[in-house]
Design goal:
GO terms for molecular function: pyridoxal phosphate binding; transaminase activity. Its cofactor is pyridoxal 5'-phosphate. There is one protein chain. The chain is α/β, with parallel strands linked by helices. It has 2 domains: 141 residues, Aspartate Aminotransferase, domain 1, CATH 3.90.1150.10; 225 residues, Type I PLP-dependent aspartate aminotransferase-like (Major domain) (Aspartate Aminotransferase, domain 2). The protein contains 15 helices and 12 strands. The strands form 3 sheets. A 7-stranded mixed beta sheet has the order 2-8-7-6-5-3-4, sandwiched between helices. The chain has a 3-stranded antiparallel beta sheet with strand order 9-12-11. The radius of gyration is 21 Å and the shape is globular. Bound molecules: pyridoxal-5'-phosphate (PLP). The site of pyridoxal-5'-phosphate (PLP) has 13 residues, from helix 5.
């Protein structure tokens, strides 16, 4: 008889964090493990942003702020959404939280009831289905295909939506595939949504700046302005500005939903860290030239890693258009080695190649592995050589 709630027992801990922890353990035991499992930039937070945090402490900005974020940060977010995304929001349509993950959590708390369905294209970011379960709602997984560049088609969306559907999760550029939906793709999905007026949409734009597609980034509201009143735009400073540890994310959307999310936040965490809010203001308002060189480094590593993976027997990696992940199909390698599945292959590779990777099943798609290339070229070269040798 467990003291734990049924709700919490339905949820599993983040598998990506588990692999990273396992690699750290093996490293502590003296093994030379290369970790390609982490979901965070290897770059340092740019100096002017760090300085803004230091200045905030010195100036005594160390107390509570408004629950939904400082007026300065909200204005910086409004200006950013206008500048980068051609979107117009007022301060009452913005909520700042402790990371984009927290924004999504607040959203689910604000809109989901027991039995509501949340449509999630797979492979997905690991937290979407488990967070859904935390609110007694039901994840409805839509399996995409590599031959369709891991994009959910309008027909698949139509087939997944029911009268119990409450929320659709869109993540582009996508963790773990690096897939980017074009404006035309989003327009086609938006047309399907017109027939389901009850369905809300969350667009997770966290990898917005890590993109090398032919056309500039757009989200669902850009493609379908008529969906603005039921779309929550979620973004943050973690990935683009190498600020994962500062924990600042935000949501922009219709005031009624934002104010319900704010109520949840006011009764749980209160305001996000005051010092981090000042640093995030500097990130969004300051010189944006720190973003480009990091993006170019990811792109260069992407090109190297995808080519290196495709040269390995039994591995088939699709070129991505953003993020710092590749999601190769490894079914050939699993078969060749006589292993059971992707989990067994990841286990084999951490032991034989001493490279830590996350099995695709953690993202809702077996037969694949996720390779993070948010690490130096020199480390990536060593890792690819080891993987190649272990699979040859
Ligand atoms: N959304 C996606 C798709 C992510 O990959 C991540 C981080 O891994 C997040 C959201 C969370 O970002 P944050 O650090 O702002 O909570």
């Amino acid at each position: 008889d467990s003291p734990l709630s049924k709700r919490v027992q339905r949820v599993k801990p983040s598998p990506t964090i588990a692999v990273t922890a396992r690699a750290a353990e093996m490293r502590a035991a003296g093994k030379d493990i290369i970790g390609l499992s982490a979901g965070e930039p290897d770059f340092d937070t740019p100096a002017h942003i760090k300085q803004a945090g230091i200045d905030a402490i010195r100036a005594g900005h160390t107390k509570y702020t408004a629950v939904d974020g400082t007026p300065d940060l909200k204005q910086a977010i409004i200006a950013k959404l206008r500048r980068d995304n051609d979107l117009d929001y007022t301060a009452r349509e913005i909520l700042v939280s402790a990371g984009a993950k927290h924004s999504i959590y607040n959203l689910m708390a604000a809109v989901l009831d027991d039995g509501d369905e949340v449509v999630i294209p797979a492979p997905y970011w690991v937290s979407y289905p488990d967070m859904t379960k935390l609110f007694d709602a039901v994840p409805v997984i839509v399996e995409t295909h590599q031959h369709n560049r891991f994009k959910m088609t309008p027909d698949q969306l139509d087939a997944a939506l029911t009268d119990r559907s409450k929320l659709l999760m869109i993540n582009s550029p996508c963790n773990p595939t690096g897939t980017v939906y074009t404006k035309a793709d989003l327009l086609a999905l938006g047309e399907v949504l017109q027939a389901y007026p009850r369905v809300l949409v969350m667009t997770d734009d966290i990898y917005e700046h890590i993109i090398w597609a032919d056309e500039p980034f757009s989200n669902l509201v850009n493609a379908c302005p008529s969906l603005r009143d039921r779309t929550m735009v979620v973004n943050g400073v973690s990935k683009g500005y190498a600020m994962t540890g500062w924990r600042i994310g935000y949501a922009a959307g219709p005031e009624a939903i934002i104010s319900a999310m704010k109520k949840v936040q006011s009764q749980s965490t209160s305001n996000p860290c005051t010092i981090a809010q000042t640093a995030a203001t500097a990130a969004l308002q300051g010189d944006q030239s720190c973003i480009g060189p990091m993006r170019e480094a990811y792109r260069e590593r992407h090109d190297y890693v995808v080519a290196a993976l495709n040269a390995m027997p039994g591995v088939d990696a699709l070129a991505g258009l953003g993020t710092f992940y590749s999601f190769p199909n490894v079914e050939g390698a699993i078969r060749k080695l006589g292993l059971a599945d992707d989990v067994a292959l990841a286990e084999y590779l951490i032991n034989e190649a001493q490279v830590a990777l996350v099995p695709g099943s953690a993202f809702g798609m077996g037969g694949h592995l996720r390779v993070s290339f948010a690490t130096s070229m020199c480390t990536l070269e060593k890792a690819m050589q080891r993987l190649h040798a272990a699979l040859a």
